[in-house]
Amino acid sequence: MPIRERGPVTSPASTSATLGDAEVRALRADFPILAEHVGGHPLVYLDSGATAQQPLAVLDAVDDFVRHRNAAVHRGAHTLAAEATEEFEDARATVAAFVGARPEEIVWTTNATEAINIVAYGVSNASVGRGGAEARRFAIGPGDEIVATELEHHANLIPWQELAARTGASLRIVHLEDDGTLREDELASVIGERTRIVAVAHVSNVLGTVTPVERIVALAHAVGALVVLDACQSVPHRPVDVAALGVDFAAFSGHKMLGPTGVGVLWGRRELLDALPPVLTGGSMITTVSLESAEYLPAPQRFEAGTQKVAQAIGLAAAVRYLEAIGMERVREHEERLARRLLEGVSALPGMTVLGPPAGVDRGGLVSLVVDGVHAHDVGQYLDEAGIAVRVGHHCAQPLHRRFGVTATVRASTYLYTTEEEVDAFLDRLASVRSFFRVAR
Questions:
Q1: Annotated catalytic sites, by residue?
Q2: Quick one: fold of 64-324?
Protein backbone atom coordinates (compact mmCIF):
# COMPACT_ATOMS: atom_id res chain seq x y z
CA MET A 1 0.00 0.00 0.00
CA PRO A 2 1.18 3.59 -0.53
CA ILE A 3 3.13 5.23 2.24
CA ARG A 4 1.52 7.88 4.41
CA GLU A 5 2.21 11.17 2.70
CA ARG A 6 3.79 14.11 4.40
CA GLY A 7 1.47 17.07 4.59
CA PRO A 8 2.20 20.74 5.14
CA VAL A 9 4.32 21.44 8.20
CA THR A 10 1.52 23.46 9.79
CA SER A 11 -2.00 22.20 10.40
CA PRO A 12 -4.52 24.10 8.26
CA ALA A 13 -7.20 23.44 10.88
CA SER A 14 -5.23 25.53 13.37
CA THR A 15 -4.52 28.46 11.09
CA SER A 16 -6.47 31.51 10.08
CA ALA A 17 -8.30 32.05 6.81
CA THR A 18 -5.21 33.91 5.65
CA LEU A 19 -2.00 32.13 4.72
CA GLY A 20 0.22 34.40 6.77
CA ASP A 21 3.91 34.99 6.27
CA ALA A 22 4.83 33.06 9.44
CA GLU A 23 2.95 30.01 8.18
CA VAL A 24 4.53 30.35 4.77
CA ARG A 25 8.00 30.38 6.31
CA ALA A 26 7.11 27.22 8.23
CA LEU A 27 5.81 25.28 5.23
CA ARG A 28 8.93 26.20 3.23
CA ALA A 29 10.62 23.40 5.20
CA ASP A 30 8.62 21.02 2.95
CA PHE A 31 10.55 22.29 -0.10
CA PRO A 32 14.23 21.24 0.13
CA ILE A 33 15.29 23.27 -2.89
CA LEU A 34 14.26 26.53 -1.23
CA ALA A 35 17.17 26.11 1.20
CA GLU A 36 19.68 26.19 -1.68
CA HIS A 37 22.12 29.02 -2.32
CA VAL A 38 22.98 30.52 -5.70
CA GLY A 39 26.35 32.23 -6.04
CA GLY A 40 26.61 32.42 -2.27
CA HIS A 41 23.18 34.02 -1.88
CA PRO A 42 20.02 32.38 -0.51
CA LEU A 43 17.77 31.33 -3.37
CA VAL A 44 14.85 33.68 -3.97
CA TYR A 45 12.64 31.70 -6.34
CA LEU A 46 10.23 33.93 -8.25
CA ASP A 47 9.73 31.74 -11.32
CA SER A 48 6.87 29.49 -10.22
CA GLY A 49 4.83 30.69 -13.19
CA ALA A 50 7.20 28.61 -15.32
CA THR A 51 7.79 25.66 -12.98
CA ALA A 52 6.80 25.33 -9.34
CA GLN A 53 8.96 23.56 -6.79
CA GLN A 54 7.97 20.16 -5.35
CA PRO A 55 7.33 19.44 -1.66
CA LEU A 56 8.56 16.33 0.12
CA ALA A 57 5.05 14.85 -0.13
CA VAL A 58 5.42 14.71 -3.91
CA LEU A 59 9.03 13.55 -3.91
CA ASP A 60 8.17 10.79 -1.43
CA ALA A 61 5.08 9.63 -3.32
CA VAL A 62 7.00 9.25 -6.59
CA ASP A 63 9.95 7.57 -4.89
CA ASP A 64 7.74 5.14 -2.95
CA PHE A 65 5.81 4.11 -6.06
CA VAL A 66 8.94 3.52 -8.13
CA ARG A 67 10.58 1.56 -5.33
CA HIS A 68 7.64 -0.64 -4.38
CA ARG A 69 4.86 -0.80 -7.00
CA ASN A 70 6.40 0.10 -10.35
CA ALA A 71 4.59 -1.82 -13.11
CA ALA A 72 2.60 -1.30 -16.29
CA VAL A 73 -0.98 -0.24 -15.63
CA HIS A 74 -4.09 -1.80 -17.21
CA ARG A 75 -1.99 -4.62 -18.63
CA GLY A 76 -0.79 -7.20 -16.10
CA ALA A 77 -2.69 -9.61 -13.85
CA HIS A 78 0.06 -9.86 -11.25
CA THR A 79 -0.01 -8.09 -7.88
CA LEU A 80 2.32 -5.21 -8.75
CA ALA A 81 0.35 -4.40 -11.90
CA ALA A 82 -2.92 -4.44 -9.98
CA GLU A 83 -1.51 -2.16 -7.26
CA ALA A 84 -0.02 0.19 -9.83
CA THR A 85 -3.31 0.38 -11.73
CA GLU A 86 -5.26 1.07 -8.55
CA GLU A 87 -2.93 3.89 -7.51
CA PHE A 88 -2.89 5.31 -11.05
CA GLU A 89 -6.69 5.46 -11.18
CA ASP A 90 -6.90 6.79 -7.62
CA ALA A 91 -4.66 9.63 -8.80
CA ARG A 92 -7.09 10.33 -11.63
CA ALA A 93 -9.98 10.51 -9.18
CA THR A 94 -8.01 12.84 -6.88
CA VAL A 95 -7.20 15.28 -9.67
CA ALA A 96 -10.76 15.11 -11.01
CA ALA A 97 -12.26 16.06 -7.66
CA PHE A 98 -9.79 18.96 -7.36
CA VAL A 99 -11.23 20.64 -10.47
CA GLY A 100 -14.87 19.63 -10.08
CA ALA A 101 -14.78 16.83 -12.63
CA ARG A 102 -15.55 13.13 -12.90
CA PRO A 103 -12.62 10.67 -13.15
CA GLU A 104 -13.64 9.52 -16.62
CA GLU A 105 -13.28 13.13 -17.82
CA ILE A 106 -9.58 13.35 -16.91
CA VAL A 107 -7.08 12.39 -19.61
CA TRP A 108 -3.40 12.11 -18.67
CA THR A 109 -1.13 13.95 -21.05
CA THR A 110 2.53 14.94 -21.06
CA ASN A 111 1.68 18.60 -20.49
CA ALA A 112 -0.96 21.21 -21.30
CA THR A 113 0.51 21.75 -24.76
CA GLU A 114 -0.15 18.13 -25.66
CA ALA A 115 -3.63 18.37 -24.15
CA ILE A 116 -4.61 21.31 -26.37
CA ASN A 117 -3.11 19.62 -29.41
CA ILE A 118 -5.19 16.50 -28.72
CA VAL A 119 -8.31 18.62 -29.06
CA ALA A 120 -7.06 20.46 -32.14
CA TYR A 121 -5.93 17.32 -33.96
CA GLY A 122 -9.05 15.46 -32.85
CA VAL A 123 -11.14 18.17 -34.52
CA SER A 124 -8.90 17.89 -37.58
CA ASN A 125 -9.47 14.13 -37.74
CA ALA A 126 -13.22 14.65 -37.42
CA SER A 127 -13.04 17.17 -40.26
CA VAL A 128 -11.78 14.51 -42.67
CA GLY A 129 -14.44 12.01 -41.66
CA ARG A 130 -12.73 10.09 -38.87
CA GLY A 131 -14.78 9.09 -35.84
CA GLY A 132 -18.07 8.38 -37.57
CA ALA A 133 -21.40 10.08 -37.03
CA GLU A 134 -20.71 11.05 -33.42
CA ALA A 135 -17.62 13.03 -34.44
CA ARG A 136 -19.41 15.13 -37.06
CA ARG A 137 -20.21 17.74 -34.43
CA PHE A 138 -16.50 18.66 -34.43
CA ALA A 139 -15.98 18.91 -38.19
CA ILE A 140 -14.97 22.34 -39.48
CA GLY A 141 -13.96 23.71 -42.84
CA PRO A 142 -13.95 26.79 -45.08
CA GLY A 143 -16.37 29.41 -43.82
CA ASP A 144 -16.03 28.30 -40.21
CA GLU A 145 -14.12 30.36 -37.66
CA ILE A 146 -11.83 29.67 -34.71
CA VAL A 147 -11.48 32.46 -32.15
CA ALA A 148 -8.43 33.05 -29.94
CA THR A 149 -7.17 36.11 -28.08
CA GLU A 150 -4.14 38.35 -28.23
CA LEU A 151 -2.96 37.26 -24.79
CA GLU A 152 -2.61 33.54 -25.52
CA HIS A 153 0.45 31.45 -24.75
CA HIS A 154 1.78 29.91 -27.96
CA ALA A 155 0.43 26.54 -26.78
CA ASN A 156 -3.11 27.90 -27.10
CA LEU A 157 -2.51 29.76 -30.35
CA ILE A 158 -0.31 27.73 -32.69
CA PRO A 159 -2.47 24.55 -32.56
CA TRP A 160 -5.41 26.65 -33.76
CA GLN A 161 -3.32 28.31 -36.46
CA GLU A 162 -2.41 24.83 -37.68
CA LEU A 163 -6.00 23.60 -37.47
CA ALA A 164 -7.15 26.56 -39.57
CA ALA A 165 -4.42 25.83 -42.13
CA ARG A 166 -5.40 22.15 -42.36
CA THR A 167 -9.14 22.69 -42.62
CA GLY A 168 -9.52 26.01 -44.43
CA ALA A 169 -11.25 27.61 -41.44
CA SER A 170 -10.41 31.19 -40.47
CA LEU A 171 -8.67 32.23 -37.26
CA ARG A 172 -10.01 35.41 -35.66
CA ILE A 173 -8.48 37.29 -32.74
CA VAL A 174 -9.95 39.24 -29.83
CA HIS A 175 -7.53 42.08 -29.07
CA LEU A 176 -6.47 43.74 -25.83
CA GLU A 177 -7.08 47.05 -24.18
CA ASP A 178 -4.03 49.04 -23.05
CA ASP A 179 -4.52 47.74 -19.49
CA GLY A 180 -4.19 44.13 -20.68
CA THR A 181 -7.85 43.18 -20.44
CA LEU A 182 -9.81 41.78 -23.38
CA ARG A 183 -11.74 44.24 -25.50
CA GLU A 184 -15.32 43.66 -24.40
CA ASP A 185 -16.77 45.03 -27.64
CA GLU A 186 -14.76 42.55 -29.70
CA LEU A 187 -15.90 39.58 -27.65
CA ALA A 188 -19.45 40.16 -28.83
CA SER A 189 -18.52 41.06 -32.41
CA VAL A 190 -15.87 38.41 -33.11
CA ILE A 191 -17.74 35.46 -31.57
CA GLY A 192 -20.54 34.96 -34.07
CA GLU A 193 -22.62 32.51 -36.07
CA ARG A 194 -19.58 31.09 -37.88
CA THR A 195 -17.57 30.49 -34.70
CA ARG A 196 -16.94 26.82 -33.96
CA ILE A 197 -14.18 27.00 -31.34
CA VAL A 198 -13.15 29.68 -28.82
CA ALA A 199 -9.71 29.21 -27.24
CA VAL A 200 -8.85 31.39 -24.24
CA ALA A 201 -6.49 31.47 -21.27
CA HIS A 202 -8.13 31.68 -17.87
CA VAL A 203 -5.23 33.75 -16.51
CA SER A 204 -2.53 35.30 -18.70
CA ASN A 205 0.98 33.98 -18.03
CA VAL A 206 2.41 37.43 -18.86
CA LEU A 207 -0.14 40.00 -17.74
CA GLY A 208 -1.87 38.21 -14.90
CA THR A 209 -5.17 39.18 -16.56
CA VAL A 210 -8.14 37.08 -15.43
CA THR A 211 -10.39 36.68 -18.45
CA PRO A 212 -14.22 36.81 -18.27
CA VAL A 213 -14.69 33.08 -18.87
CA GLU A 214 -18.36 33.00 -17.95
CA ARG A 215 -19.21 35.69 -20.51
CA ILE A 216 -17.10 34.01 -23.18
CA VAL A 217 -18.84 30.69 -22.52
CA ALA A 218 -22.25 32.33 -22.80
CA LEU A 219 -21.37 34.00 -26.10
CA ALA A 220 -19.80 30.83 -27.52
CA HIS A 221 -22.56 28.45 -26.49
CA ALA A 222 -25.21 30.81 -27.82
CA VAL A 223 -23.84 30.10 -31.32
CA GLY A 224 -23.03 26.43 -30.72
CA ALA A 225 -19.25 26.90 -30.37
CA LEU A 226 -16.95 24.94 -28.07
CA VAL A 227 -14.74 26.65 -25.48
CA VAL A 228 -11.19 25.38 -24.86
CA LEU A 229 -9.66 26.81 -21.68
CA ASP A 230 -5.94 27.12 -20.97
CA ALA A 231 -6.04 26.75 -17.18
CA CYS A 232 -2.28 26.51 -16.58
CA GLN A 233 -2.13 29.72 -14.57
CA SER A 234 -5.43 29.28 -12.74
CA VAL A 235 -5.74 25.68 -11.50
CA PRO A 236 -2.46 25.88 -9.49
CA HIS A 237 -3.30 29.23 -7.92
CA ARG A 238 -7.03 29.59 -7.24
CA PRO A 239 -10.13 27.42 -6.81
CA VAL A 240 -11.30 26.19 -10.22
CA ASP A 241 -14.42 24.16 -10.99
CA VAL A 242 -14.35 23.36 -14.69
CA ALA A 243 -17.93 22.14 -14.79
CA ALA A 244 -19.20 25.27 -13.05
CA LEU A 245 -17.26 27.47 -15.47
CA GLY A 246 -19.19 25.84 -18.31
CA VAL A 247 -16.20 25.32 -20.61
CA ASP A 248 -16.03 22.26 -22.85
CA PHE A 249 -12.33 21.40 -22.58
CA ALA A 250 -9.59 22.56 -20.22
CA ALA A 251 -5.85 21.91 -19.99
CA PHE A 252 -3.29 22.31 -17.20
CA SER A 253 0.19 21.04 -16.32
CA GLY A 254 1.48 19.22 -13.25
CA HIS A 255 4.81 21.00 -13.02
CA LYS A 256 3.13 24.36 -12.42
CA MET A 257 1.21 23.07 -9.36
CA LEU A 258 3.90 21.41 -7.19
CA GLY A 259 3.88 18.22 -9.28
CA PRO A 260 6.47 16.50 -11.45
CA THR A 261 7.31 17.45 -15.00
CA GLY A 262 6.05 15.17 -17.74
CA VAL A 263 2.40 15.04 -16.71
CA GLY A 264 -0.52 17.22 -17.69
CA VAL A 265 -4.28 16.99 -17.84
CA LEU A 266 -6.91 17.34 -20.52
CA TRP A 267 -10.38 17.69 -19.09
CA GLY A 268 -13.39 17.45 -21.34
CA ARG A 269 -17.09 16.91 -20.94
CA ARG A 270 -17.64 13.16 -21.10
CA GLU A 271 -19.92 13.16 -24.12
CA LEU A 272 -17.39 15.24 -26.06
CA LEU A 273 -14.40 13.08 -25.14
CA ASP A 274 -16.25 9.93 -26.15
CA ALA A 275 -17.05 11.46 -29.56
CA LEU A 276 -13.69 13.14 -30.28
CA PRO A 277 -11.47 11.02 -32.57
CA PRO A 278 -8.20 9.98 -30.91
CA VAL A 279 -4.88 11.40 -32.03
CA LEU A 280 -2.27 9.03 -30.60
CA THR A 281 -3.04 5.44 -31.46
CA GLY A 282 -1.59 2.08 -30.53
CA GLY A 283 -1.75 -0.17 -27.52
CA SER A 284 -3.98 0.28 -24.46
CA MET A 285 -6.57 2.50 -26.18
CA ILE A 286 -8.35 -0.16 -28.24
CA THR A 287 -11.07 -2.79 -27.85
CA THR A 288 -10.66 -4.84 -31.04
CA VAL A 289 -7.92 -4.81 -33.67
CA SER A 290 -7.77 -6.55 -37.03
CA LEU A 291 -5.16 -6.17 -39.72
CA GLU A 292 -7.45 -3.69 -41.46
CA SER A 293 -9.02 -1.60 -38.69
CA ALA A 294 -9.45 -0.98 -34.98
CA GLU A 295 -12.14 0.03 -32.52
CA TYR A 296 -11.33 2.38 -29.67
CA LEU A 297 -12.10 2.47 -25.97
CA PRO A 298 -14.24 5.25 -24.53
CA ALA A 299 -12.62 8.17 -22.74
CA PRO A 300 -10.25 8.61 -21.07
CA GLN A 301 -8.37 5.51 -22.26
CA ARG A 302 -9.00 6.29 -25.94
CA PHE A 303 -6.52 9.17 -25.59
CA GLU A 304 -3.92 7.29 -23.51
CA ALA A 305 -2.04 5.18 -26.03
CA GLY A 306 1.04 3.28 -24.94
CA THR A 307 2.87 3.20 -21.64
CA GLN A 308 1.60 5.90 -19.34
CA LYS A 309 3.32 8.42 -17.07
CA VAL A 310 2.29 6.50 -13.96
CA ALA A 311 4.77 7.82 -11.38
CA GLN A 312 4.19 11.38 -12.58
CA ALA A 313 0.41 11.07 -12.26
CA ILE A 314 0.81 9.71 -8.73
CA GLY A 315 3.11 12.63 -7.94
CA LEU A 316 0.53 15.09 -9.27
CA ALA A 317 -2.14 13.54 -7.05
CA ALA A 318 0.18 14.02 -4.07
CA ALA A 319 0.61 17.67 -5.08
CA VAL A 320 -3.17 18.08 -5.24
CA ARG A 321 -3.58 16.64 -1.76
CA TYR A 322 -0.91 19.02 -0.48
CA LEU A 323 -2.70 22.01 -2.03
CA GLU A 324 -6.05 20.85 -0.68
CA ALA A 325 -4.59 20.57 2.83
CA ILE A 326 -3.57 24.24 2.68
CA GLY A 327 -6.73 25.44 0.91
CA MET A 328 -6.88 26.98 -2.54
CA GLU A 329 -8.74 30.08 -1.38
CA ARG A 330 -5.88 30.73 1.05
CA VAL A 331 -3.35 30.21 -1.75
CA ARG A 332 -5.23 32.68 -3.92
CA GLU A 333 -5.43 35.31 -1.19
CA HIS A 334 -1.72 34.95 -0.39
CA GLU A 335 -0.68 35.37 -4.00
CA GLU A 336 -2.97 38.33 -4.58
CA ARG A 337 -1.47 40.04 -1.53
CA LEU A 338 2.04 39.46 -2.85
CA ALA A 339 1.02 40.64 -6.32
CA ARG A 340 -0.18 43.93 -4.82
CA ARG A 341 3.14 44.27 -3.00
CA LEU A 342 5.00 43.63 -6.26
CA LEU A 343 2.85 46.04 -8.25
CA GLU A 344 3.11 48.83 -5.73
CA GLY A 345 6.84 48.32 -5.28
CA VAL A 346 7.68 48.26 -8.98
CA SER A 347 5.38 51.20 -9.72
CA ALA A 348 7.25 53.29 -7.14
CA LEU A 349 10.58 52.78 -8.92
CA PRO A 350 11.62 55.21 -11.67
CA GLY A 351 12.10 53.87 -15.19
CA MET A 352 9.85 50.83 -14.74
CA THR A 353 6.81 49.90 -16.82
CA VAL A 354 4.43 47.15 -15.70
CA LEU A 355 2.32 45.30 -18.26
CA GLY A 356 -1.19 44.23 -17.35
CA PRO A 357 -4.02 45.31 -15.08
CA PRO A 358 -3.26 47.80 -12.30
CA ALA A 359 -3.49 47.14 -8.59
CA GLY A 360 -7.07 46.67 -7.42
CA VAL A 361 -8.06 44.58 -10.45
CA ASP A 362 -8.38 40.80 -10.10
CA ARG A 363 -5.11 39.39 -11.46
CA GLY A 364 -2.78 36.45 -11.03
CA GLY A 365 0.18 36.52 -8.66
CA LEU A 366 2.77 37.63 -11.19
CA VAL A 367 4.18 40.85 -12.57
CA SER A 368 5.87 41.39 -15.95
CA LEU A 369 7.85 44.57 -16.39
CA VAL A 370 10.19 46.50 -18.65
CA VAL A 371 13.20 48.40 -17.32
CA ASP A 372 13.83 51.55 -19.33
CA GLY A 373 17.19 51.33 -21.08
CA VAL A 374 18.09 47.81 -19.92
CA HIS A 375 17.32 44.61 -21.82
CA ALA A 376 15.27 42.03 -19.93
CA HIS A 377 18.02 39.43 -20.20
CA ASP A 378 20.52 41.80 -18.58
CA VAL A 379 18.05 42.49 -15.77
CA GLY A 380 17.59 38.77 -15.27
CA GLN A 381 21.32 38.17 -15.05
CA TYR A 382 21.74 41.04 -12.59
CA LEU A 383 19.03 39.56 -10.37
CA ASP A 384 20.46 36.06 -10.69
CA GLU A 385 23.82 37.26 -9.40
CA ALA A 386 22.00 38.02 -6.15
CA GLY A 387 20.31 34.60 -6.09
CA ILE A 388 16.97 35.91 -7.40
CA ALA A 389 15.39 33.66 -10.05
CA VAL A 390 12.91 35.26 -12.45
CA ARG A 391 11.79 34.57 -16.00
CA VAL A 392 12.96 36.78 -18.86
CA GLY A 393 12.01 36.77 -22.54
CA HIS A 394 8.70 36.67 -24.36
CA HIS A 395 7.31 33.85 -22.19
CA CYS A 396 5.98 31.97 -25.23
CA ALA A 397 3.72 34.92 -26.01
CA GLN A 398 5.33 36.91 -28.83
CA PRO A 399 2.11 38.44 -30.22
CA LEU A 400 1.22 39.77 -26.78
CA HIS A 401 4.62 41.42 -26.37
CA ARG A 402 4.38 42.84 -29.87
CA ARG A 403 1.01 44.35 -28.93
CA PHE A 404 2.75 46.39 -26.22
CA GLY A 405 5.74 47.28 -28.38
CA VAL A 406 8.35 45.26 -26.48
CA THR A 407 10.40 42.20 -27.36
CA ALA A 408 10.89 40.85 -23.85
CA THR A 409 9.88 41.40 -20.23
CA VAL A 410 11.06 40.43 -16.77
CA ARG A 411 8.49 38.31 -14.96
CA ALA A 412 8.39 37.71 -11.22
CA SER A 413 5.83 35.10 -10.23
CA THR A 414 4.81 33.99 -6.75
CA TYR A 415 3.36 30.87 -5.16
CA LEU A 416 2.24 29.61 -1.77
CA TYR A 417 5.85 29.37 -0.51
CA THR A 418 6.83 32.93 -1.52
CA THR A 419 7.43 35.33 1.38
CA GLU A 420 7.10 39.08 1.68
CA GLU A 421 10.84 39.20 2.38
CA GLU A 422 11.52 37.59 -1.00
CA VAL A 423 9.35 40.13 -2.76
CA ASP A 424 11.19 42.91 -0.97
CA ALA A 425 14.58 41.39 -1.87
CA PHE A 426 13.51 41.43 -5.52
CA LEU A 427 12.35 45.05 -5.28
CA ASP A 428 15.54 46.15 -3.52
CA ARG A 429 17.76 44.58 -6.18
CA LEU A 430 15.55 45.87 -9.00
CA ALA A 431 15.87 49.41 -7.60
CA SER A 432 19.59 49.45 -8.39
CA VAL A 433 19.53 47.86 -11.83
CA ARG A 434 19.39 51.11 -13.84
CA SER A 435 22.24 52.73 -11.95
CA PHE A 436 24.30 49.55 -12.32
CA PHE A 437 23.86 49.71 -16.09
CA ARG A 438 24.35 53.50 -15.99
CA VAL A 439 21.04 54.46 -17.53
CA ALA A 440 19.52 56.18 -14.47
CA ARG A 441 19.04 59.92 -14.74
A1: 396
A2: Aspartate Aminotransferase; domain 2 (3.40.640)
